[in-house]
TrEMBL record:
InterPro entries the record matches: NAD(P)-bd_dom_sf, SDR, SDR_fam
Protein name: SDR family oxidoreductase
Coiled coil: none
CDD domains found in the cross-reference section: BKR_like_SDR_like
Family as reported in the entry's similarity comment: Belongs to the short-chain dehydrogenases/reductases (SDR) family.
Pfam families: adh_short_C2 (PF13561)
Organism of provenance: Flaviaesturariibacter amylovorans
Length: 253
């Protein structure tokens, strides 16, 4: 299936590692021109090299702390200067720390709000006018299955990521007449470095496999395939949706 992504300009946030990296690689495979960003310059360069080997000339990287407003603006300015207007935006962040409610101070909550919610809002705000002008745009937020079924000991993710659900649904209705779709992708337990770290700190996390109908963790590539479809030309009539890629873990409808 031709997804219609050839030469589309895609910005994938927090994409030097993990799910963001997997999505960036998949979009490059489909012919998109991909901008990646992250705070770890070494990891970012390694990912840029991997994408460059796959799609020479179709990757550009920017070191960016998504909690910093000025750096977010610079990210957009440099991206547009390198590849032109952004057609596809995939918002993403590193995973918040595990812990119970009393483990987090008020400053921690402010930081998490800035990282998980405000960073997405601001970057969307910066790219949306151009998408509306051109009559095409794809916005995809990456959150977590925790927004539908809270995960134990991840209260920060359960709470703050949920706010993006209201944003996605409301914004999708506002921008649908302009040819812009807005969707949300919910990764379940997926074999990334973050999951490995969680298992290292608490081996019982590995037992979650038994609660997943497929009896295994997902792969980043499986998640990235779903992301690529939702930001494609083929998904032009899908908007305002939250799709779980979780092997059936969520128990509700």
């Amino acid at each position: 299936m031709d997804l219609g992504l050839n030469d589309k300009v895609a910005l994938v946030l927090a994409s030097s590692k993990g799910l963001g990296k997997a999505v960036a690689l998949e979009l490059a495979r489909e012919g998109a021109r991909v901008i990646i960003c992250g705070t770890d310059a070494g990891a970012l360069k390694a990912t840029e090299a991997a994408i460059g080997a796959l799609a020479p000339g179709n990757v550009f990287s920017v070191v960016c702390d998504l909690t910093d407003e000025e750096q977010r603006k610079r990210l957009i300015d440099q991206s547009v200067a390198a590849f032109g207007p952004i057609d596809i935006l995939v918002t993403n962040t590193g995973g918040p720390p595990a812990g119970a409610f009393e483990a987090f101070s008020l400053d921690d909550w402010k930081h998490l709000y800035n990282l998980l919610f405000l960073s997405a809002v601001d970057v969307i705000r910066l790219v949306l006018p151009g998408m509306k002008e051109r009559g095409f745009g794809r916005i995809l937020t990456i959150t977590s299955v925790a927004v539908k079924q809270p995960a134990d000991n991840l209260i920060s993710s359960n709470a703050v990521r949920t706010s993006l659900l209201g944003l996605v649904k409301s914004l999708s209705n506002e921008v649908a007449p302009y040819g812009v779709t807005v969707n949300n992708l919910l990764p379940g337990y997926t074999s990334t470095n973050r999951l490995e770290d969680l298992i290292a700190k608490n081996p019982k996390v590995n037992e979650v496999k038994e609660t997943i109908p497929m009896k295994r963790f997902g792969t980043p590539e499986e998640f990235a395939s779903a992301a690529a479809f939702l930001v494609s030309a083929r998904a032009s009539y899908i908007t305002g949706q939250s799709l779980a890629v979780d092997g059936g873990w969520i128990k509700g409808h």
